[in-house]
Amino acid sequence: MAELDISTSNCIVEQDGNVLIVTLNRPEAKNAFSPEMLLGMYKAWRLLDEDDDLRCAILTANGDTFCAGMDLKAGADGEHRSTEEFMELMGSVPNIHWQALLRDNRPNKPLILAVEGYALAGGTEILQGTDIRVAAEDAIFGVTEVARGLYPMSGSTVRLRRQIPYCLAAEILLCGEHISAQQALEFGLINRIVDKGQTLAEAKKIAAKICANGPLAVKAVVRSLREHQECMSEEDAMVASDELANPVFASSDAREGMRAFKEKRPAVFTGE
User: What pTM did the predictor assign?
Assistant: First the structure.
């Protein structure tokens, strides 16, 4: 596994075959967001979009807390430090922080989340920008902004009610309380629970399954899942879905997949 030069002190970006692994690396501050962390995540997601060799990404963290969200101590004291590069980029990409946090311009490939420990406020908000979520048995979630007199600006008031039942989303958002991994599983907020310390290994297993599939088909399915929302009529959604499907069926990968099935061998996809 190779560390990439887009890594920062607070965000390690590595490539493991066709998988991009993004690790939040500020354990001394409970992985609260910093400019260096946001810069690394922003660059990682844009690389995932641009590099055809990358099929999916895993987001995880070092330490015993996945992410505590915004650095409230720095925010209260006015000491939030910014790197020169981050500030320069913000001049041309004003929403760079929202892109980093998966609110805006999400990458066009699957994102797998591996959570150990606490994922609070922004830690649960970024969760909603991922596609498949693995949590340790000790993981704790919560959109806790209201308990601090704040508003969850990373999209939870919009996304959470679309991803789990409305009444559960309302309770999470309005009470600002913690929920356990088991509750998150029952709510449908995460996919599965594994033993403590095993989330990254489980995420890699899921990534391997995704990487074995046709990359054009995977990207098209991701687009459909994200873009064809409940607000669309079923008829309009079907038309839009067909528009994504047609180029996939016309691809060399589709022919290879059917040929491999006939020949009873693993398919070798090229993304063409």
Answer: 0.93
